[in-house]
Structure formats: structure tokens, C-alpha cells
Design a protein that fits this description.
Elements (H helix, E strand, L loop, with lengths): L1 H10 L3 H51 L2 H54 L2 H19 L3 H6 L1 H23 L2 E3 L12 E8 L8 E6 L2 E3 L2 E4 L1 E7 L4
Parallel strand pairs: 2-6
Antiparallel strand pairs: 1-4, 3-6, 4-5
Helix pairs in contact: 1-2, 4-6
């Protein structure tokens, strides 16, 4: 058709006839492509059907080759393998569950400990600032000689007011578990005492707290200020 179209174009230059020839060529090409697509699809379907038939036949042939006892043993082995897989998965899940529980318990314990510490030591800064007030009240009471109290009634009244204030402050300390650190005549403990100096003393064991320069305090079991002390040592002789 293509050759005929070319000859018509060279011979008569009939454009309408030439266009009809090209249209005919296109129709024949599309028809040919459609037939090829149909045959290709049919061939694929035939291959699929053939494979589907061959797989059961191969399985059936394999089963025919085994005796009934061998087929039963094979089935038992497959079931045992499936059970082992389930057991392995269950064990792994149980391990993960145990680890998650342990982690949750650790988080709970840490949170509880943080809350308890916040309740117990939340006032540590405030309590530590009140220790200077207690020191000043003690200095005020110690600075007044006893013989002066009987001579001046106003001084005696002032002294009694300072002593009562100091006792009230100490009772508040005790109520909130703020206690003094035992220091004098105690063995020196670096966790509780701060050594400032040493002095010779034959009446006490070396390393004993002999003098207290400043009282130490604890909030519950935590030291908020160590006691400043002087410790004894053996005489040079």
C-alpha cells in the first residue's frame, strides 16, 4: 500500500487519494498491534495456568514418593518447628515485658525519692540562713556577765527576752528536724566537723574535738553546716 501511495504521489499528485492511502496504512498498523497484544495476553494466561497445574502435580508426586509413616513424621516435624517458633517469640516478648516493668519501677522509685528529698530538704536554704540568727542570739546572751544582771533590771529584762527568743528559735528548729551536731569530746569526723587548728592536750586522746568555735547543724541526716572545731594532739614531750 505504501508503494502504491508513493507511485500515486509521483504519477498523479492526487493528494486526496494519497491521504486515503495513509489512513488505510494507519488502520492496518493499529489492527496488527491489537492482534499482537491479544496473543501476548493469551500466551501469559496459558503460562500461568500451566504453572498452577504443575505445582499441585509436583506436590502430589512428592507426597506419593513418601510412605504414610514418612508423611506423618514430616507433618510432625513441621508442627514441632512451628511450636518452637511460637515459644521463641513468646520468650522474647516476655523478656521485653520484664525489662519494661523494671524500667517503670526504677522511674517510679527515682520520682518518689526526688519528691521525698524535695519535702525533706526544700527548706535547706532558709534553715541555713537562720543559723546566723541563732549564732547572734547566743553571742548576745554570752556577752552579758551574770553579775551585771542583778545590778540593772532593764538589762536583766532584755537578757531574759533574748534568752526566750533563742529558746523559741531552737524549738522551731527541733520541730523541723534541724538539730545540733555533737562535737565536743567526740572523735573528729570530717563528715561532721571542720578542723581549724590543733592544740596539745594530755587529758584527751589525740584527734578528739576539744574546742568548738562554731556549732554545726543538720537538717534530718544532711549536714547543712559542719561544726568548726579545734582538735587535740599529743604533747611534744
Amino acid at each position: 500500500i505504501r508503494t502504491q501511495a508513493r507511485s500515486m504521489l509521483h504519477s498523479s499528485q492526487d493528494k486526496a487519494e494519497f491521504a486515503r492511502c495513509l489512513f488505510s496504512i494507519g488502520q492496518q498498523r493499529r489492527s496488527f498491534q491489537h492482534r499482537c497484544s491479544v496473543r501476548r495476553a493469551e500466551a501469559q494466561e496459558q503460562v500461568k495456568e500451566s504453572n498452577a497445574k504443575e505445582e499441585p502435580e509436583a506436590k502430589a508426586e512428592e507426597e506419593k514418593e513418601l510412605s504414610p509413616m514418612e508423611a506423618l513424621e514430616k507433618k510432625v516435624e513441621e508442627l514441632e518447628k512451628t511450636i518452637e517458633d511460637y515459644k521463641e517469640g513468646e520468650k522474647e516478648s516476655q523478656d521485653q515485658y520484664t525489662r519494661v516493668l523494671a524500667e517503670m519501677e526504677n522511674v517510679r522509685q527515682r520520682a518518689k525519692r526526688d519528691v521525698d528529698n524535695a519535702k525533706k530538704f526544700g527548706m535547706q536554704g532558709f534553715a541555713k540562713s537562720l543559723l546566723d540568727v541563732a549564732d547572734n542570739l547566743q553571742r548576745a546572751t554570752d556577752a552579758v556577765p551574770e553579775e551585771k544582771l542583778g545590778e540593772d533590771e532593764s538589762l536583766k529584762a532584755l537578757h531574759e527576752g533574748v534568752v526566750m527568743t533563742e529558746k523559741t528559735l531552737h524549738s522551731i528548729f527541733e520541730k523541723h528536724n534541724i538539730t545540733k551536731i555533737a562535737a565536743e569530746n567526740q572523735p573528729f569526723d570530717p563528715n561532721l566537723h571542720e578542723g581549724l587548728y590543733e592544740f596539745e592536750c594530755s587529758e584527751r586522746e589525740p584527734g578528739t574535738v576539744g574546742q568548738v568555735v562554731q556549732e554545726g547543724w543538720k537538717l534530718h541526716e544532711r549536714v547543712i553546716r559542719p561544726a568548726r572545731v579545734g582538735t587535740t594532739k599529743a604533747p611534744a614531750s
